[in-house]
Design a protein that fits this description.
The structure holds two protein chains of two kinds. Chain A is mainly beta. Helix content of chain A is 14%, strand content 42%. Chain A has an eight-stranded antiparallel beta barrel with strand order 1-2-9-5-6-4-3-10. In chain A, strands 7-8 form a two-stranded antiparallel ribbon. The longest helix of chain A is centred in the C-terminal third of the chain and has 13 residues. Chain B is an alpha+beta fold. Helices cover 16% and strands 43% of the residues of chain B. In chain B, a hairpin with a 4-residue loop joins strand 3 and strand 4. Chain B starts with a strand and ends with a strand. The chains are: A mainly beta, B alpha+beta. Chains A and B meet through helix 2 of A and strand 3 and helix 2 of B.
């Protein structure tokens, strides 16, 4: 049975399912990092996407090169952007529409890890509101059972 | 004689000189709609900058003049097709939805005299969200 996690931002929760087998090392590092308590911010370069920063735990041990390189992050998918330098932070990227991951130097890549399996309408609205309302507390935890 | 505008946001005011030789049409269009108030928000596609929409600037087929694609910190640029004024504080490029690939352009029509403090406010919109912004003529 596929593993699932729940993200809660601004009192709104949604459930994601791990896309098993696509990127096993990244998935295990992500799974072993849960729970995550951090902030969600809107991207400034990648479009309709918000991200949660992770600054400790096994995700920071990932190599800088993404395990499965994707630039287009589809609506309802979550991708992991590995550290840009050894020991650097990781971004958990959540797309709510048209999103293409970009760094200051142009197109960049991250690894898709999970997809939305519950109604994401309210969560997408919260992500979009990050532009107007700024950063928000975010909690990501495993769904047990 | 040069004309200047004032930009006020979050209690910080900065003066910018209009580039009337380089972008005369844009400067005049801006001057004509001032004073103006709008909501300043961080960019989502273009990088380290914030923007306001001023619908009163709308004019079909408004030309590009003194056009730039990569913004410099402290510059003020106008994107006619979106009626957006862009305030850049770092690495920033005129860009929009993925479906419209490639560089876009904006009219560089003003430059801040001393942008140090106001650039920090522009940057703060990323974490703090939208802020009310006022642009007015600077009467000498």
């Amino acid at each position: 049975m596929s593993r699932e996690f729940e993200i809660t931002v601004d009192g709104v929760s949604a459930r994601y399912q791990i896309v098993e087998d696509l990127a096993p090392k990244t998935i295990e590092a992500f799974w072993n990092s849960l729970p995550v308590e951090s902030h969600m911010l809107h991207t400034m370069r990648s479009g309709q996407l918000a991200f949660v920063s992770v600054n400790s735990g096994p995700l920071l041990e990932l190599p800088q090169r993404p395990e499965l390189m994707c630039a287009s992050i589809y609506k309802g998918y979550m991708s992991v952007r590995p550290p840009l330098r050894p020991g650097g932070g990781v971004e958990l990227q959540f797309s709510y529409g048209i999103a293409e991951y970009r760094s200051p130097t142009g197109r960049s890549y991250s690894t898709p890890v999970a997809r939305l399996v519950s109604d994401g309408t309210e969560l997408f609205s919260v992500m979009q509101r990050c532009v107007r309302e700024g950063e928000k507390q975010a909690v990501i935890r495993k769904v047990e059972g | 004689m040069s004309r200047y505008i004032e930009v006020e946001v979050d209690g910080v005011t900065a003066v910018a000189k209009l580039l009337e030789d380089e972008a005369p049409g844009t400067c005049q269009r801006m001057w004509d709609v001032l004073p103006a108030e709008a909501t300043l928000r961080h960019l989502s596609w273009a990088g380290e900058g914030a923007f306001v929409k001023l619908e009163q600037l709308e004019e079909p087929d408004f030309p590009l003049e003194n056009r730039v694609s990569f913004y410099m910190p402290g510059t003020i640029c106008y994107r006619p097709e979106n009626v957006e004024i862009v305030f850049c504080y770092g690495q920033c490029q005129a860009r929009t939805l993925v479906g419209r690939n490639g560089n876009l352009y904006a009219n560089h029509f003003a430059t801040f005299e001393d942008p140090t403090e106001i650039l920090k406010v522009f940057e703060s919109t990323h974490e703090e969200g939208a802020k009310k912004l006022t642009i007015r003529r600077r009467e000498s």
